[in-house]
Amino acid sequence: MLKTIPELVAEASDGLRCISAEEAFRECGGNSGHVIDVREPGEVDLHPVSGSLHIPRGVLEMKVLELSQDPQTPIYIHCASGVRARLAAAQLMHMGFTQVAAISCNIEQVKAACDNQSAAAKG
Length: 123
Fold this sequence. Notes:
The chain is an alpha/beta fold. Helices cover 51% and strands 14% of the residues.
């Protein structure tokens, strides 16, 4: 039987740390982690998030090892709505990364949290 997207997301979310964008950017500022944007290039062009590294979901597994080969590297994944972020985060955990979190909010909230973190850092 084929699984629906909600079923896949529910499976991916089991045991996965899902956090707000504010929490992710705050933690990342203190632990040298990476915020990864897994949206498609056209989505990033329309709504860029300056504080994140763009690695499209389709090439994440191939590109993430160029970013870090340390399984304890903190990684925070976001997309436009949280769905792809959860699927991507689960895949990184499957690869062996242990400090992975999915940002479970929409892109406007991600952008606002990034802007707030940047303003606080300049502060």
